[in-house]
UniProtKB/TrEMBL annotation:
The protein, known as: HMA domain-containing protein
PANTHER family: COPPER TRANSPORT PROTEIN ATOX1-RELATED, HEAVY METAL-ASSOCIATED ISOPRENYLATED PLANT PROTEIN 20
Organism of origin: Kingdonia uniflora
Subcellular location: Membrane
Residue intervals of the HMA domain: 24-87
SUPFAM superfamilies associated with the record: HMA, heavy metal-associated domain
Top-rank taxon, per record: Eukaryota
Length: 147
């Protein structure tokens, strides 16, 4: 039976190729837009993509948000085909970052309430300076009995 099943796979008429399903995702892109025509051109390019469910264009923040069954690289390529400078949205809300005002994260061009999404170095918990600062912390009830 095993050999018969093996050869029957070669003789079948129907195709059993499976397509890889895309996942529902939200893609955010930074696009330099100056006027209503730029906004309309970018919106039309992205809404005509297959799989795009919703498109939000915020010209004030230079931000395009696309939700649907789309690939981020394909959306970026489609936006760049309109002749606009575009990149993946590089900002995160500043309350999600440990040190939002370090030189690498703080950006004057960022929209209000956002900083760049960069990897930040956190102090080591075994660092002697960190141990001393946490020793006299108000958050630690066992820190110091003198206080």
């Amino acid at each position: 039976m095993g050999a018969l099943d093996y050869f029957s796979n070669f003789c079948t008429v129907t195709s059993t190729r499976r397509r890889k399903r895309r996942t529902m995702q939200t893609v955010e892109i930074k696009v330099k837009m100056d006027c209503d025509g730029c906004e309309r051109r970018v919106r039309h390019a992205v809404t005509s993509m297959r799989g795009a469910r919703s498109v939000e264009v915020n010209r004030k923040q230079s931000r395009v948000t696309v939700s649907g069954y789309v690939d981020a690289k394909k959306v970026l390529k489609r936006v760049k085909s309109t002749g606009k400078r575009a990149e993946i949205w590089p900002y995160v809300p500043f309350n999600l970052v440990a040190y939002p005002y370090v030189a690498q994260a703080y950006d004057k061009k960022a929209p209000a309430g956002y900083v760049k999404n960069v990897v930040q170095a956190l102090p080591s918990p075994n660092n002697p300076n960190e141990i001393l600062t946490s020793m006299f912390s108000d958050d630690n009830p066992n820190a110091c009995s003198i206080m």
